[in-house]
Amino acid sequence: MPDPAPDVDHLLDVAVAALGGSPREGQRRMANQVAEAVEKGEHLLVQAGTGTGKSLGYLVPSVRHAVVADERVVVSTATLALQRQVMTRDLPLVADALAPELPRKPRIALLKGWHNYVCVHKTSGGYPPDDQGMLFDLGDRGAAEHPSTTDAADGEDAGKESLGAQVVRLREWAEETETGDRDDLVPGVTDRAWRQVSVTSLECLGQRCPLLEECFPERARAAARSADVVVTNHAMLGVAASGSPHVLPEHQVLVVDEAHELADRVTAQSTAELSVGSVEHAGRMARRHGGVATTELDSAATALGAALIHLPEGRFTAGLPEGTRQAVAMVRDAARGLLSALRPEKPAAGESAAPADSGLKIATSSVLALFEVAERMAAEADDQRYTVLWCSRAERDGATRLYAAPLAVNGLIRTHLLAGRASVLTSATLSLGGEFRSMARSIGLEGAGEAAAATATAATVAVSAPGGSEGTTLDVPKPATSPAPASLPWHGVDVGSPFDYPRQGILYIARRLPPPGREPATDAQLDEIEALITAAGGRTLGLFSSRRAAVAVGEAMRERLDVPVLVQGEDQLPTLVRQFAADEPTCLLGTLSLWQGVDVPGRSNQLVIIDRIPFPRPDDPVKSARSEAVAASGGNGFMSVAATHAALLLAQGAGRLIRSTADRGVVAVLDPRLSTARYGEFLTRSLPAFWRTTDREVALGALRRLAEPPAATSPAPATA
Length: 720
Prior knowledge:
By secondary structure, this protein is an alpha/beta fold. It contains 28 helices and 20 strands. The strands form four sheets. A seven-stranded parallel sheet has the order 3-4-2-5-10-1-13.
């Protein structure tokens, strides 16, 4: 039977014209590669450089395939900002533009975590008020489904508005909104205010809710189940990969944008946390909303506090110390007992079920979250071979917390997200060291030994909870001994970039500087930074490996220079970025949030300074454990973990410089190891193909010419 739809090239032309753009060769190549992969049910890694237009490169073939083959496509983005762009601009325009060319109009839907939607039952008084502002302190699945930490603008304008005023505005909005989606509320509100009008999936009354027909998250899920293309986010993929695949609708194709972040998002979602505060919180919820005594849990909290007070910070390579493990086991057993006490009585024969009790559901969800975490941490050492356990004390409150994370998540990603369907994983930074295998291993397309197999499956713990006559079965990720599926067939392709990196940018490696030490910044680095910024006339984005370094350099430059210097943390990040973009002489210095996602084309950003190679901290418990596991299996732990991590961040940071075909500038790396160390070539091969130099005067001369008025600017700084 002939294909009823036009080919991808024609549809791409239609979509590009609808968006007012122009054809790009890399975008066309990407669209055809994606179309072939989804039609054949294959796995594809696509590196698409900045300016390629990768959103259309995957949306056009995805929409075509979903309609023609009648197979649902799920598209996941890393941040709320990108999710908004895809769902409010790119995808609707593509769907409308392609509708006349396809057998029928494409159906699209947006899907987020439960906590992103207002709960109409809660706003109508159906839930007890969250007067402690702590309902989500346990890092439960519902809260984690909202990736708000990636978008600093959330609630930005709410800081001057009182909590009460925000809640009043929220309740008024809840009566008018058609979506109930937090992102549709402008201006936004703080997380604490949002908690007053939302619930997590565990706290939801489900089918027993009296306002089920008006439920916004249920509507969103119903729309997703009938849509051709569903847009979601990596946090939701993390929930699915952690053993709750039902959070996503059935789908045959998965497209992951900003795929370089996927493994870290799944790791974060799979990381559990336990503290005395979380135990006490669950006890309060059980007493207040469940009406049960919590004597055993209170005793367990005391025992846990006594165990934690002298516990050293750091990773436990042989499982929790026995005394601490016993205290955690007490918490687990007490929580299990409370779950039984909170279970509603079944109605007698002939009697109808009692109305759903929202307070009881809140209590049960809190205790259940505690039980899951404690059970995972109290396991015997042999059962935790593939779990990383560590202790940390927070600077803000001094509280001691225990953490548990999977040693590897590639098995989880492979089993729960990629196996059995076609997948397209794309980003501007997927090829590290000039090849795709590192990324393929991190997301499970290539096997990575026993540790990967250990995370491939999730055990199921059946826990009876309010909300249904038969209770609720929850998937609790646990180490498993069954092997992961064999490596999945995949291939990678780099479709290039429209930018001429060798002519548009210079990579300057300050080889003459001493290697960075423990201090935030050396005198030699400060002198180098001063010279570079002076030559550039400001116009500098400074990317630092620590907040201490950014602050120290910011203070020093304010004393030495007469250009405005902004430092991350002094105001909301979006505000700082706007100020940086609006005033050419301004410099913006910061840490991780600036390494990714900042998009400032033009003359305001002509110098990107990177203070040191961004290796993970030596005491990072998860990365150090993974490095040791690779070494134990005969591999190179440093290159597989630390160098790969650094290569990815370096590529992201250097990518902040050239954002349009008109941009020119210098990336200055103040760490001589990029030029002198054996791993330096691996790292530089991960960067855009800038013209490379270690000559300080060449870099300074190019910056001085770029700082001249535009009419006199050299069009090719790399050739000077």
